[in-house]
Write a structure and sequence with these properties.
273 residues, alpha/beta, Rossmann fold, eight-stranded mixed beta sheet, 13 helices, 14% strand, globular, binds NADP nicotinamide-adenine-dinucleotide phosphate
Amino acid sequence: MFNLLTMEFCHFVVEEHSEKESFMTKHACLDIRWQRLWRTVALAAVIFACAISPRPLLAQSTASAMKIGIIGSGNIGGTVGELWVKAGHQVLFSSRNPEQLKPLVDKLGPLARAGTVKEALAFGDAMLIAVPYGAIPQIGRDYAADFAGKIVLDATNAVLNRDGEVAKEAREVGVGITSAKYLSGARIVRALNLMSFRRLASNANRAGERMAIPIGGDDPEALKVASRLVRDAGFDPVVVGSLERTKLFAQGGPLYGQEISAREMQERLKAFK
Ligand SMILES: NC(=O)c1ccc[n+]([C@@H]2O[C@H](COP(=O)([O-])OP(=O)(O)OC[C@H]3O[C@@H](n4cnc5c(N)ncnc54)[C@H](OP(=O)(O)O)[C@@H]3O)[C@@H](O)[C@H]2O)c1
């Protein structure tokens, strides 16, 4: 964290001394640099807050419960949504054929409901997206206005032999960056993509030290919300940094598939500062 701050500050100072632009340009640049500096400080504050934040001991009170919309209510969306319902959140599971979700929402009770993708986007204070990666560009296009300003936890993985061209792009530039490009306007946090839904379900709320879920994004407020939701699902969130840094826990990355505690994950992260 401190390396990140120091690097950002040095970058700021060095660039400052090499400036030879006009007065107006200089002030515009200064604004941008101050914004970058503040953003880094805010991100560092979120990382610190997540590290010291206690676990929830009780289910949510009605006042603090959130409304969550899920796009892609299959293996991973169904599993994580169920964990959130059990933690007291209201969840709208969506499908292109919502009637097919009746058995799931009947099983979960009054906090769960089924609807269309558009209804989920209107309902959710925060969203989880868990669709095959190949569907991301189309979903981004069809619901462009609905995604504006939305906090979206992105649990997708880009699989080359399943998801076509967009998976190639995501493997090259990073899944997080690619999701932010196609779900333009959304405040993306990569989260909960770490392992199979079965292993995720069996590790949720496990005894002893909880399992760490690495998360990352460029929006400090979205990271705060995502940290809380990861905690409520039964895990300890570990903020690894920006969307760019989420490559660390993408499929094939060094943190992918690791069933380790937050303490162990923080230790491993030291190698990737
Ligand atoms: N399976 C795992 O263990 C796991 C673990 C980590 C990450 N992931 C990642 O999570 C994502 C979902 O995997 P999954 O295994 O949960 O898949 P899944 O069981 O097939 O569920 C995906 C859901 O996405 C919905 N969907 C597909 N295309 C859509 C579109 N164009 N618009 C709206 N909804 C659409 C489908 O709902 P309808 O057909 O009902 O509309 C389907 O229920 C993938 O990116 C995967 O790589 C999976």
